[in-house]
Design goal:
mainly alpha; two-stranded antiparallel ribbon; 4 strands; 28% helix
Length: 152
Amino acid sequence: MTKHSGLVSLSVLALATLGALGTQATAVADPLPYGPDTCNQGFVWREAGPGDVVCVTPAIRDSTAQQNQAAGQNVEPNGGAYGPNTCKQGFVWREAFSGDTVCVTPAVRTQAASDNAAAASRKAANAPAPAAPPPCLGPNPAPGLIPAGVFC
């Protein structure tokens, strides 16, 4: 075999190998464990009420559960201008979702509004997909002839 026919053989091998890159099967990611409402790591559902799947920190969820348990303590016992759900002085409706009339401090309502505004960014379905690693075709069969980067 001549020097040129060896180069041609290596070139054909390299082209055939590179052509196989486009035919590799793409791995399919597992579906999100809780569907489109799956939270990013470090976040959990707030659960201020039925169907409340806004993603918050675990501390906010715990605080929300405590607020729900103590809901009756911050309501005017005889009602008021807003009916039976009128809050005591210094408290406001949380408004974490439509119809949420749990009485909380204004800071808690502000936090709930902030969490609602950030809701989409905390869902795993909206997170950017991780970059795929570059394909690796094994050791370079012709170092110096085939550029580095395709083989590892």
